[in-house]
Amino acid sequence: MTEREGLFSVPTRLLLTPEQRARLEALVHARETDLATLLSEIVGEYLDAHGGDIQPVPQPGPDVAGELRKRRAELARMRARRDTPGSVAPTWLLSYIAALEDEIKRLSES
Hints:
Shape: rod-shaped
Oligomer: single chain
Number of strands: 2
Order of helices and strands: EEHHHH
Structural class: mainly alpha
Number of domains: 2
Mean pLDDT: 89
Largest sheet: 2 strands, antiparallel
Low-confidence stretches: none
Radius of gyration: 28 Å
């Protein structure tokens, strides 16, 4: 689906018998409109009439496993940087590592 001006465009294909197609073309001609406008009206009216019967599809939750992998990889890189021999880790790096550890713990518990 694509969105434009607050409306959603849903590319689709209609499978109609030749008789249904002829009736649809006649309806478009009689209403002096285009097919997209007519179908938008038909679908909108149907959804308004049956809105209480149709439950929205639940949105998938975040990919926690993927996020954990990313955070753990970042944590490993930052720890390696912190533990580089002969250097002193800057304060921001220590803070960042602590924040990553907290974030990993939070994601692991959810």
